[in-house]
Amino acid sequence: MIQTDVMVIGGGPAGMNAALAAAESGAQVLLVDKFQKLGGQLVKQTHKFFGWAQRGAGTRGFNLAKQLAAQVNAQPNIKTLLGYEVVGAYPDQTYLAASWEDHVKISAKKVVVCTGAAERMILFENNDMPGVMGAGAVQTLMNEYGVLPGENFLIVGSGNVGVILAYQLLQAGANVDAIIDVLPKLGGAYWVHAAKVQRLGVPLLLKRTVLGVYGSDHVEEAVTVEVGENMQPIPGSEMHHKVDVVALAVGLMPMADLFQMLQVETVYIPELGGFVPWHDELGHTTNPNIYVAGDAGGIEEATTASLAGSIAGLVAAKELGFTVNENWIDEYLQALSSFRESSLSRKVLEGIERMRGDGNA
What we know:
Blueprint: E1 2-9, H1 13-24, E2 29-33, H2 61-74, E3 78-82, E4 85-89, E5 94-98, E6 103-113, E7 117-119, E8 132-134, H3 135-144, E9 152-156, H4 160-171, E10 175-181, H5 191-199, E11 204-206, E12 208-214, E13 221-226, E14 239-241, E15 245-248, E16 252-254, H6 257-261, E17 266-269, E18 274-277, E19 290-292, H7 302-319, H8 326-339, H9 346-358
Helix pairs in contact: 1-2, 1-7, 3-4, 4-5, 7-8
């Protein structure tokens, strides 16, 4: 049995910052992550971040992951358990984490859940054919392992992930046939990224979706079609794309399944990506011993995840009786509020307001 004051589940930007905040306040922290190294989604992100300078703006994602991991590993109050996934939660505040080879029992007074998000898929003919991949999977193969999973790509989704992926693929020597999006306008990407790939000759085709992919034993062709105002295909508008990979960048959904075991109330909030745990601005959920930070509580990005992680870690330590600098909590809350003032965060703020109106805390 591993005993700890605070267990943090998830080693991405939210989890590492939560662990650091709690540990620096004097708490003993166990940081559990199912992967073999810390960093979460940061390890495959080669672009420089926007946002708050104190939270990585101007730093490439994989370098930010290294910096945070080095701080975690240098903190004597933090123990890491890598390659393990929390798969069980019990009423006596004990937990079960399992790897491919064994399992360990954990006793934790407080738990901060930073499990992140999973990629969404969409329905079309043969969408389970080899060559249909999530954009994150393409980034993992390319940026972490140096493997280019194809030569000719069609990217579905014109948000930041899809547009940045297109640029990374071009840098790696691949061909990007097009970026398509069912929406009539750019799907949330920063214009600077979209303009960059368009200057490099990648067409951005709006109001268009995938009908199907075809090939012998892997994708060899994708067929897309224009959609009308009711999102129905317009006959005669089909386009044939000779590609071997269709990368889906159609959004993320919070990894909220663990909250059911933790007896935390979840609510369905489309603006936050789907089912999320009810939580307040400090990360409290409806279970007084469980906190949430990062994409597990609603889809945003690395800066907000980092700030929310620090807040949740500080609050967990404070409520265990450790001395916490209250000014830090206020500073992070103010920074989080300021960062969300961008027009890109309008839907997120609407979702947060709706979630807190539906909760029973």
